[in-house]
Amino acid sequence: MLSREVMPAPAKPQLRRLRLVLCGLAAALSLPALATPAAASSGVFSYYGGRVLGSPQVVQVLYGSGTYSSTVAGTVSPNIATFYTGILKSPYVDWLSEYNTPAAPNGTGQSIGRGAFAGRYQITPAVSGGTVDDTQVQTELKSQIAQGHLPSPALDAAGNPRTMYAVQFPHGLQVTQGGVGQALACAFHGAVAAGQTQEFYYTLIPDLEPQTPGGDGQCGGSSTFETETIVSSQQLLDVMTNPEGPLSSSATAPPTGWYDFNDGYDVADYCAAQAAAVYGSDGIAYMVTRGYSDQASNCVIEGPSVGDFSLTLQPVAQTLATGSEITYTVHTATTAGSPQALSLSVSGVPAGVSASLTPNTVTGGGSSTLTLAAAPGATTGTTTITVTGTAASGSHNATASLTVTARGASPSSIRNGGFESGSLSGWTVHGTATAVNSGAASGTWAAQLGSSTTATGSSSIAQSFTAPASTTGITYQYRMTCHDTVAHDWTTATLRDNTSRATLTMLRPRCITDSSYVTVAAPVISGHGYTLTIINRDDGNSSNPSWTLVDNVQLISTAPRGIVNGGFETANLFGWVTAGPSAAVVRGGAQAGLYALRLGSTVPSSGESTATQVFITPTGTSTLSYWYRMSCPDGVLYDWSSASLTDYTSGTTSAVQANTCSKDAAWVNVSAPLTAGHTYSLTLLSRDDGYPSDGSYTLFDSVTVH
User: Fold this and answer.
1) Which residues of the chain have pLDDT under 50?
2) DSSP string across 592-616
3) Does residue 405 sit in the same domain as residue 428?
4) Domain check: are 627 and 522 in the same one?
5) CATH number of residue 592's parent domain
6) What is the tens place of the pLDDT at every residue in 158-216?
7) Which candidate, 24, 232, 396, 624, has a CA 20 to 30 Å from the CA of 524?
8) Would you call 357 helix, strand, or coil by DSSP?
9) Do 321 and 271 have their domain in common?
10) What's the pLDDT score for residue 178?
11) C-alpha count within 13 angstroms, C-beta hemisphere, residue 292
12) 86 phi and psi angles, rounded to 5 deg
């Protein structure tokens, strides 16, 4: 079990030193008797005037070379980096707002809220072999910060420290506490006062693999990773509510924050033997230590359920010709509590344009279609339309750009598709987008959506056009730089047929750093009016910005008919657009020929890996066929393979392969009917929940139309 965090015997009465988690010790050491403190109390815990860690920026520090557990130093999700990323933006920290501090002169006036993971760094310390003391670690952290090897401590607007360095050690390196000399088994946290650097906080967590003292089950967890997250979460809660405790000469005076004087506990110490699973913002369940809530009078992982939701409106920009209509999709999501009934309304619609929402009431997580129809005499120009969702918990808005043009105003070709004008003329711009004169696919200029620093939200460029005679397709090239995951950052593109009112997803949301430009193509029908929208989305985390370069947007006179590279014998993904954690062409084990497509990985990779191709069914063909072979040691509730087929001509989507989890000794054939001349999108999918012991993947081959 995970032992309570205890204080070592002080050198002087009332001297409160660095706090330890020592596995096997059952209770806190008793302190000399003190007078009853004059402190603000919310129940078990009292506030003594010190700071809290309001919006933590967590930096993971690998202390030197050596062997680390795969979940500490590896990149396969889940790992400690994804743990901090997901947990810091989850309800696990929301309930700590009950430990906000009062304003001066009685407190620091801080609010505790969600934070962010600020990256993983590996340092080369001066002392790294055998045994290292926490006083040496403090000195090393200050030195590494001064040399620029670690990011400097951050402050909030009021000058309060925000940075916690989560220091983790390789196997075989023993960690001791300064002045005590006792080896660290689980973890402890400390603080460094302002001086050589700004004030900052840190946690020290040794190797917790099974062969180590802390990994023998005493620190909690049924696996190494569970032990790591349980211990890390306990330290995180304690630092957020009492970060300056280690700097205090008295447990009952500033800079002590929230503290249980009677039992000698911090907020998570009280519940140290109680672990539970909580979902991070990445959708992964992590084992964490519960914290004590004075409001609930219990150990909790989340506060009382307070419902909340979000709205998005897609696409972010469209053009509407007078005498025609277009649609937007309103997406909703439940961000806290249980799904609520949401009442939707629209505003900002120009004169002569009618608007309808179908349905106008949805449950959180549902979607609605916004239809805009422009009368022949509608007011032209660009405006912002707003959809408002109202629920019991409050309301939220989502906006999109609408450009109304007179019928016939759409050009018959793409304007400035190579961006060689040195600008984005001809395009409707939303968010952060500009023309750049470096990194173009050809020529000198390209469009950049998003920023290499920070660009919060969706950035897009959009253009409406009418496909001229003999035109059969549209194509563009892009190259993305994505330092996050597709759950947070992505690029995507849609092609709206304003004549038939159908929307084709040219590029599914994708987050990957491309070494070269990727070509995307879609068919068009001569004489139809279209709106192309290309989007880059960034969640605004300054430590992992994402952006997309776009070039060579053009109409073409030939479009793909039938499946391109369905046997993958080009040894690459030519003709396919991939998304998710892992998609590759592999040699060997193919259904036919030498190569096959593998979605997912032979090691666990959390998320959905997909491969998509848009095609037109040639005359004389009526059947789609492909083969797959899955390796799935899990259950279909967690991992699966599937495939879907969207008919853009008829506006229907069908599941050609239901969710399947199997260990196939032989290849399995799947077929589906097609209609000649129709435009389709085939998406192949393999999903893995990322659990370390049962990774799943799927091989696909021989995708044909006949």
Assistant:
1) 1-38, 409
2) SSSEEEEEE-SS---EEEEEEEEEE
3) no
4) no
5) 2.60.120.260
6) 999 999 999 999 998 888 876 555 667 688 899 999 887 899 999 999 998 875 555 55
7) 624
8) strand
9) no
10) 64
11) 21
12) -75, -40
CB 498 within 8 A of CB 543: no
Q: Is residue 56 part of a domain?
A: yes
Q: What single-letter DSSP state applies at residue 32?
A: P
583-587 β-sheet, strand order: 583-587, 595-600, 697-705, 623-631, 668-673
Q: What pLDDT is recorded for position 408? A: 53
Who contacts 370 (Cβ-Cβ below 8 Å, separation ≥6)?
313, 327, 328, 329, 330, 346, 355, 356, 357, 385, 387
Co-location of 143 and 248 in the same domain: yes
Instruction: Give the separation between CA 651 and CA 332, rounded to whole angstroms.
Output: 22
DSSP for 164-228 reads: EEEEE--TT-EEE-TTT-PBPSSEEEEEE-SSSS--EEEEEE---STTSGGGTTTT--SSHHHHH
pLDDT tens-digit map of 17-58 = 333 333 322 222 223 333 333 455 557 899 999 999 999 999
Q: Residue type for 681, please?
A: S
Residues 619, 683 within the same domain:
yes
The CA-CA-CA angle for residues 552, 556, 558, to 5°, reads 135
Using a 10 angstrom Cβ sphere, with 0-12 exposed, 13-18 middle and 19 or more buried, the burial of residue 88 is buried
469 and 402, same structural domain?
no
Any domain includes 35: no
Here the CATH number for the domain that contains residue 365 is: 2.60.40.10
Domain span at 577: 560-706
Q: What is the pLDDT of residue 517?
A: 83
Q: 432 lies in a domain?
A: yes
Q: Count H helices, E strands: the chain?
A: 5, 45
Q: Is 330 helix (H, G, I), strand (E, B) or coil?
A: strand
Half-sphere exposure of 699 (CA within 13 A, CB side): 24
The amino acid present at 552, given as its one-letter code, is N
Predicted local distance difference test score (pLDDT) of residue 365: 86
Distance, CA of 383 to CA of 356 (rounded, Å): 17
**Dist. CA 123–CA 102, nearest whole Å:** 38
Considering the domain architecture, whether residues 473 and 589 belong to the same structural domain is answered as no
Q: Structurally, how many domains does the chain consist of?
A: 4
Residue type, 259: Y
- E-assigned strands of 437-580? 446-450, 457-466, 473-482, 490-497, 502-510, 518-523, 529-538, 546-556, 577-579
Burial of residue 604 (number of CB atoms within 10 Å: 0-12, 13-18, 19+): buried
Give the rounded distance of the alpha carbon of 84 from its chain centre. Answer: 11
The structure's pTM equals 0.45
* 260 and 346 within one domain: no
Residue listed under structure tokens 């349980």: 230
Name the residue among 640, 631, 459 with its Cα closest to residue 533: 459
DSSP strand pairing (490-497 vs 577-579): unpaired
| CA angle 196–202–203, rounded 5-degree value | 155
Which among 515, 540, 559 is the end of a domain? 559
CA angle 565, 571, 577 (to 5 degrees): 55
Cα(507)–Cα(496) distance, rounded to whole angstroms? Answer: 13
Residue 493 lies in a domain: yes
The continuous run of DSSP H or E covering 91 comes out as: helix 91-94
Residue ending a domain, choose from 522, 540, 559: 559
Q: Distance between CA 567 and CA 101 in Å, rounded?
A: 63
Q: Which amino acid, one-letter code, is at 291?
A: G
Residue 341: C-alpha distances to residues 33, 65, 360, 378, 624 (Å): 55, 53, 11, 34, 41
Place of tokens 């032990």: 227
